[in-house]
Specification:
- This protein is of the alpha/beta class.
- β14 and β15 (409-410) form a beta hairpin.
- It is globular and about 65 Å long.
Length: 635
Amino acid sequence: MVKFLRRVAPGDWMPVGVDGLEPDADAVVRSAHSCSVIAGPGAGKTELLAQRAAFLLQTGASVAPRRILAISYKREAARNLAARVQRRCHGSHSGRLDSLTFDAFAKGLVDRFGQALPDRWRPRPDYEIMQTGEVLYSRFLAETVGSPPPSVGTYADVQAIGVKHFERIHLLGSRLPVEGWTAPTPGQWAADRFWQSSLHKGPKTQLSFPMIGRLAELLLRLVPMARTALQLTYSHLFMDEFQDTTQVQYDLMHTVFRGTDVIITAVGDNKQQIMRWAMAMRDPFAALESDFGAARNSLRNNYRSSPELVRIQHVLAQALDTSVAAPVAKAAATVTTNSCAILDFESRDAEAAKLAGLVRTEMKKRSLTAKDFVLIVRQTPYKYAPRLENAFRAAGIALRNEAAAVGEVVLQELMADEASDLVVAVLRLAATSRAGRIWADCLEALGALRGVAADDEAGQARLMRELDAFVLGLTRSRPAPPKDQAEAEAVVAELLSFVGRERLIAAHPAYAQGKWFAQIENAAAVHLAASSQGAADWTAALDAYEGVHTVPLMTIHRSKGLEYHTVIFVGLDDGAWARSLREDEAEAIAGFFVAFTRAKQRVLFTYCAQRAARDAVDGLYQLLLGCGVKIIPVK
């Protein structure tokens, strides 16, 4: 792929690595102003940001030494964007992009400047990450908070606070007051009690990531030097999956960049807003356009799905927004019959066996791999996994629950982790020839960790010798995959020592506090040991580790941002959908839309009367039936 090093005149710049961009996308890429971009499924949102980064860096529109800050919702998305920019730009350019999750960005601020906060809001330096949820808040409100002063209210007033309302409105709903709430409502009084307990009681401070976001916003209000440093550092801000931005996240960016010369590009799809349960704003696009003068743009091309699937997607999209423009399908169809269908099974065993047989047949018929398929469920994949795994195993196909626990880490989180990735990359280097893409990726990762620039010839040569020597030694000392857990732990420890634990922790804020790095190291060893059982060589073990030959089983939320030839949605029934449709119908339909739009060529829904009725989900069935989708009985 072409990588520009010299400065290119804006008028001469051409998109890198793609044939071209649709006119509206090209205008956003070259824009000198803030933009909000509504881009439907398959529109190439990440590619648009990668091309915009290439344009800004290669033309000098982002003037060195200023940098570009890219904020994504998920770590996979942040890494994907960084990798795309690296493939399109010379290292001296791509090194000026900081692609982070919001949590990593906020945590980095608190870790660097948190001790400048006033006593009331100052976390201990060795704080730990706390997992919150309805159970924790319910217990706190019922058992811990106690009775407020008479001037605030009564115990009954506090108990009347809904758990979700407590978190969304009182605990995290607004910027933290420097001196605390002076005349608190019962909800604010309870929130303050939660904050002070989390910050100051017990052996260590306990904070959730949204709480860290609120502390980061507060310290930037109180420490002008830190705020100014960010404003001087960054010329441009990218925000991906912007439809899922929370008030916490928006307020932090507002505090940092409102009224500055920083140019913002925010991309997302308001029809895919499925994080309102996690406090996503109702309409962050409107807020951005009002506060930052961002001009709204829309992308209509769909480069992912076949024309028939795009037609059905538009009907689903209209259920969320009647004014949505029809998308333009750009992908050719390879499946011409039953590209979307509802399969009606008599039993769960029949469902599992038939799905396994269908995948096996389609793999052979269309020369597809296991990774071309995904099984998606609304929630609780562990309830579906055992029966499906057994059926797929009987058909000679591996199925993997991506939400399965590996130690204290979810498997899909381990697969997205930087330390885990480095372990696998170096092991693959030892198992193959020391050349090609893996070699380049390892060198690039080591160079970033050790501060060796891409154009530092002497430093790069030193890294190459160091990496080559380590890999040769690893090949001799560990010719076969580990036989047991202890050996796997030793392999992972040896690799992390070579890479540099301290460097990894310094480079990735999520590792800096608490037990996350230790949990990742343990999970990597546990998973490596399990993946090595029965593996003939390192390649087979690492393929099993990464799930190269397995069909993934995941939830809608985990599938977001991914794509597959065939999507099989298991369980279109009341058991999976009734509660979400009752609590927030728009978000439930958006989740349905997200699952559907992962598919390139085929979407299959399954129903089994043995599992649940389909009364509450009748509206979803009617949407599909109205598009001409058929219900096919399967015995």
